[in-house]
Amino acid sequence: MWIIQCELYALKASSNTIGQESSDCKHITIHFLPLIRGSSPSREAQTSLSPSFPGNSNADNVVQYKLQQPAIARFLRLIPLDWNPSGRIGLRLETYGCPYTSDVVSLNGGSSSLVYRLSPGPWQTSKEVVSLKFKTLRNSGILLHAEGQQGVSLSLELERGKLQLLLRQGKTSPEPLHLTSLGSLLDDQHWHHVVLEQKSAHLNLTVDKNTERVQLPAEFMACLYKCLSLGAVHSLRSQKPDASSKDLHGCIENLLYNGFNLIELAKNSDHQVTGNVTFSCAEPVSVALTFPGPQSFLQLPGTTASSPGGVSVGFQFRTWNKGGLLFTFSLPQQEGMVWLYLSDARLRLMIHKSGSVVLELSAGAALNDGQWHAVDFTARRGRLTISVDKGEGGIAHAAPSFPITAESQLFFGGCPAEEHSEECRNLFETFQGCMRLLTVENQRVDLIKVQQRLLGNYSQLQIDMCGIIDRCSPSRCEHGGRCSQSWTVFHCNCSDTGYSGATCHSSVYEQSCEAYKHNGNTSGHFYIDVDGSGPIKPQLVYCNMTEENTWMVLLHNNTELTRVRPSPAVSQHSVHFDYSSQEEQLLAAISQSEHCEQELSYHCRKSRLLNTLEGSPFSWWLGGPGQGRVQTYWGGAHPGSQQCACGLQGDCVDLQHYCNCDADRLEWTEDSGLLTHKDTLPVRSLVLGDIQRPGSEAAYRVGPLRCHGDKNFWNAAFFDKETSYLHFPTFHGELSADISFLFKTTGSSGVFLENLGIKDFIRIELSSSTQVVFSFDVGNGPLEVRVESSVPLNDNRWHRVRAERNVKEASLRLDELPVATQEAPTDGHFHLQLNSQLFIGGTASRQKGFRGCIRSLQLNGVTLDLEERAKITPGVQPGCPGHCSSYGSLCQNHGRCVERASGFQCDCSLSAYAGVFCQTEVSASFKPGTSVSYTFKEPYELSRNSSALPSSIYSEMTLRAENISLSFRTNQSPALLLYVSSYYREYLAVLINKHGKRGTGLLRLFVFSSFPFNDLISFLSLSSSLKSDIFLFPESDDLDPDLAKLASLGFTGCLSVVHFNTMSPLKAALLHSDTSPVIITGPLVQSNCGSAASTNPYAAENTHHLSGKKGGASFASSPAVCFAVWRRRDVQRVGWEVNRGSTVNSCLTPWLESCFIKSESPIFLHWKHQPCCMSP
Fold first, then answer.
1. What are phi and psi of 198, to 5 degrees?
2. Going by DSSP bridges, is the β-strand pair 551-554/562-564 parallel, antiparallel, or unpaired?
3. Where are the beta strands (DSSP E) in 499-649?
4. Domain EGF-like, which positions (predicted)?
5. I need a labelling partner for 1108 at 20 to 30 A (CA). Which of 237, 355, 365, 1039 fits?
6. Rounded CA separation 983/943 (Å)
7. What is the pLDDT of residue 185?
8. Residue 1044: in which H helix or E strand, if any?
9. What is the pLDDT of residues 750-761, one digit of tens each?
10. CA 576 → CA 558, 568, 607, 622, distances in Å?
11. How many CA atoms lie within 13 A of 987 on its CB side?
12. Handedness of CA 380, 386, 388, 391 (dihedral sign)
């Protein structure tokens, strides 16, 4: 390969022109990389300037490129990638730059350092700025030490190739405080730019354009620098460097303090500067090799005959991989091989003879840390030694019984591609990394001769450079994800972060309690992430979903009513409230909610609160962002009013005052209310002033912060035309971007969103009725990620789309389908550069727009306000109705979904259950003497003279079936559970009969459960006629004698979710007794005794269920549940009894055989009335 190199001297290249002059021209592509003599392109140059620069394709045109970032270099190297096979090539290159001043010092350790003792002058300002450039081949050393008053100092120290910022608070302080670290692999002999900025307690450290922000301790806020030292630690009073400091070996350029060039002062022998340095920068020659891939290897000749017996090889290497072959050679006389390799980041040696392992050694650990490690291999005089880092990293010895010589070839990193090579066989991974300072028999290998093919052989090596890249610095793992890497890729460990994805970008939590509710969750503690993939961390809150509104509850350290006793020595009582959420989490949660409130109450006796309207308040509270602002109003009043709720309503105990407590009475009274103005929430502190007088007593309570309504979750727009769209400012997601939204449509295709750049773009679209496509281009060609659904997506139901693109991969998820991913190229994506507006529901490229609804659209955790933009956009309507089609299934137990403007609501009026999703069992504990009766309206025509009605009319008025469901728990048998009577003296009863005890004159069906008598029995559908009353455990003279006797025993236990057709008598008695036709006798208390969660496995009572579901049952010996139907017409009473092993009527047998089957699920009983069984 031909390489053209020219010296730029001291020019700062800001643009370049590449042209070609030839009569027979062909396109030329040239890589532009700024170089420094004897070294390789910097990592910054490789990453930011690695794109090739195509030249012109004829002799007349000129191609010009303007670099986006300035490149500072001494040499410019041109590497043509393509040549004209026929014809001659001419090249003209012009570079344009600006003058560049370079003041350099060289530090060689020991006494080589510079000290600047700063006296008050024009360079000292309220903002301290120190900037410099440095380069070194060593991975540790003191770069800069700045000392201020009272011995407080800041240090920039190079440690393992990273720059650390340390704070010391005097010489007597223990270990220094580690503020931050930045950069990596800074020992690469390239110039690195460092800027340290301090203003008050804020400090910024910048290394090569990467910035870390640090908050300094309060004692260092006003500390001005008095002494600056380079290369070592000097104090104000000492003329010699600290002997314990690690001296820097390297060069420093252009040290500026508040704009003043301190190196120039040193050149001019300024009296404030002392030290011993050289004002030049030596260029140590250190040629490195890079083994980039599986085909890389270096072949060197072995030892010569004149060498003493044995072999000695040394080198340094650095890598990120845990494994790889370092070097190998054959033992022809022994028919063996020697391998020195990495495995599990340890150095290992293996020797084979005649196909078997005869020797193994290991040394060192964690050698894949990217640092340079020295390896020495010596085999001489019957002793073999391998050492790491001159023995500091580990050493191992052996005494082989056979001679080890390397008269054949030495192979480093890998083997040639030829198969069945006797000289080189690699049983391990190929080495990927860098090597330098290779020695054979203590003689340095001239790698420049290797590059010139004058020594040895090689394949696919990068010579004169170490191409290692630290992909974890700066870390692309977000939200605290832990970064690890190999030579080619990095990996993010997202465990315990609350985020997921290749770079821990996307939150695993929902953004609000509202979102959890619509996933089908019930009340409980949940982590919410209010900004999704944004910087705010998830927070633990309590979500109360028992009401129509879904409340998010944020607790603080004292929500109880707290007594304040008088204390003459204390004029005021103040209390501060610490919330479980951080400041930014609180403010984001309040901002996102539609409504927030916090209870504030004051109970008082001879303790005034706010005094008069004109006077100064005795008490106040602080609320709002930060430490809060002083608020002089109380719960239920308006901000700034200096009133309580009673003052606003005009019903205070003393109308001359605006608070009850201001009446200053001896009786206990209170001022309570809700604070609802979000700008003043949450309550931060409370100050109570009138508590020191004799006889003064008070108590206060500040409730938890409660918020409901997610303004983002229901934010939607309806696009009624394919040509309609919304537009927003350009989307910025250069390195990582996530987009999430919900859509519903009846159309088969359309573009959800699109944003364009000059070449780059990003787009999400519905490509067909079953496919969503995420496509983008970030400079390396278009990429697509597709998800195919097995069901149509144009079903007018909500579907969720989540797309993410980062430097590792692009992913797309549709609803709960598996995630589709597309890996990024090995070198990673470039920055996504967009410049047009963001189009929602349509495109700038005139593709088919979207017709339907888009809701809760978020880009990188920020919700776009679709509704507000839709209000001013033709063809787009704010909001989107029709949520029950998607969320109606959340309404359980016959609950009915009701549409709302934002969302939906479950109507539980026809259900025996309650709760937000009609999922909460309504239960009550019964004692003997407790009963509930529910009376139906009596039809007027029947009640006038029911006995005069002809039998034909009677039969037409009779219903064919009744649906009954209930749950119970008891240890009582026998017992009557439910009794229903009709206007025609017919009745229906559900009872528990003691096993083996038979009755007479009744139709009884005994069901034996294979479970103990504490499990589930569900569903009963019985034939009966019109009814008038439902009784839970009645006592009546008109009852059948057997039933009357049973009813007189009462019932002790729990009944839950009692349902008869469309009525829920128990729910009506417990929740709506004032408006329902119920009569309650005895104590009836609502409890959770019927809930499955409340069941105690060790208790004597457990829960059984009878509900309207078909199924099966299996039999075992236990108390029987008896369902009885009485048809009374004064002339006939018919009945059967069914028990295990008994003979039953033939018309029941087929039903029993088909319905009673063994099942591990709850027992279901379904009664099918057949006319043949009801004959007298």
1. -130, 130
2. unpaired
3. 499-500, 506-507, 524-528, 539-544, 551-554, 562-564, 573-576, 593-605, 620-623, 629-631
4. 468-505, 881-919
5. 1039
6. 8
7. 92
8. helix 1041-1047
9. 999 999 988 889
10. 9, 21, 20, 9
11. 21
12. negative
